[in-house]
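Worked example 2:
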Amino acid sequence: AWLADAGDKNRLCTLRNEFEAHLVRECPGAVVNGAGAMRLWNTTNIGFTGLEAEALLMMLSERGVCASAGAACSSGSLEPSPVLLAMSVPERIAHGSLRFSLSRETTADDVDEAAAIIIEAVRSLSGSL
């Protein structure tokens, strides 16, 4: 029933779009992979140019933000996602790309808190703190 309600999907799509915009605005070189294409309303893949996804994932995990690098079927691999490379995402961006998903329980406050933690981690790793 929840999936059938377009209002719920629209709410999460709006939160996802705000999350993406915040990160792109505050993290120089950040890009939304697949922007402009049809995408899932609750999922985003953001590339942080020049950073390694694994280092970013460790920092985020320590702060309680869950994310993933690459596809679930290739977890544990240090290679950039073959899907991102097939989408013509440059390797320097693909290496620093993370996937974030929002749930039906995600709130605007959750998104704001996660974005603040991600921005801090990106700045720390890029040496701009």
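The longest strand covers residues 43-48. The beta strands are 30-32, 43-48, 97-101.
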